[in-house]
From TrEMBL:
Alphabetical list of InterPro entries matching this protein: Flavoprotein-like_sf, FMN_Rdtase-like_dom, NAD(P)H-dep_reductase
Family annotation (SUPFAM superfamilies): Flavoproteins
GO cellular component: cytosol
Descriptive protein name: ACP phosphodiesterase
Highest taxon, organism lineage: Bacteria
Pfam families the record matches: FMN_red
A GO molecular-function annotation: FMN binding
Domain annotation NADPH-dependent FMN reductase-like: ranges: 4-148
Length: 184
């Protein structure tokens, strides 16, 4: 069976370019990968006090990561950093202390921006958090998708040939990364 990849998208916007990218990645990924978006918009802000009777949404998202073979982060950049909704999801997934469902997971980061720098700042702030909790973040190829607003057609399909080619190589590399780190 293909590796199950949980995809966390750092934007809640209906017409989010990051979400479009996540869908494009799902379609161009090799048959060894099965991508599924895990929704993070309804997670209450992390609060240790809630752990005694953790919210259902926290439990569900944590379970999604437990059963996934790998995690793919697709995110825009907000003020040179990680959008709060995604940081909150990472915080929720990092706890309870010592029981993070993310630690040890193979992961990769795709950042995107309508600007030229492709969300570099968000990518590296996210990487810093993930590395600190023992997530096995793939280091290359790095993916910073710049000028993202120009890459899709009106139906939201990725049409830019160079980006399709690059993301295809990225997805193959990610599959190899997951295989190397997985026990099967
Ligand atoms: C942005 N945007 C942005 N872009 C960027 O390249 N660097 C940045 O630091 C920021 N900061 C920022 C802050 C906030 C609060 C918002 C709402 C937006 C612009 C951002 O890249 C753009 O809105 C993207 O389209 C957001 O991604 P989605 O929603 O299309 O996936």
């Amino acid at each position: 069976p293909p590796y199950q990849v949980a995809v966390l998208v750092g934007s809640l916007r209906q017409n989010s370019f990051s979400r479009m990218l996540a869908h494009a990645l799902s379609e161009l990924a090799p048959p060894t990968l099965s991508l599924e978006i895990v929704e993070i918009g309804a997670l209450p802000f992390y609060n240790d006090d809630l752990e005694a009777d953790a919210p259902d949404t926290w439990r569900q998202v944590r379970q999604c990561i437990v059963t996934a073979d790998a995690v793919l982060f697709v995110t825009p950049e907000y003020n040179r950093s990680v959008p709060a909704v995604l940081k909150n999801a990472v915080d929720v997934l990092s706890r309870p202390f010592g029981a993070s469902v993310l630690s040890g997971k193979p992961a990769a980061i795709v950042s995107a921006s309508p600007g030229a720098m492709g969300g570099f700042g968000a990518s590296h702030h996210l990487r810093q958090s993930l590395v600190s909790m023992g997530v096995n973040v793939m280091s290359s190829p790095e993916v910073y998708v710049g000028n993202v607003a120009a890459l899709f057609d009106h139906a939201g399909a990725l049409t830019h040939a160079g980006t399709i080619e690059f993301l295809t190589r990225f997805a193959i590399a990610f599959s190899t990364w997951i295989e190397r780190l997985s026990a099967r």
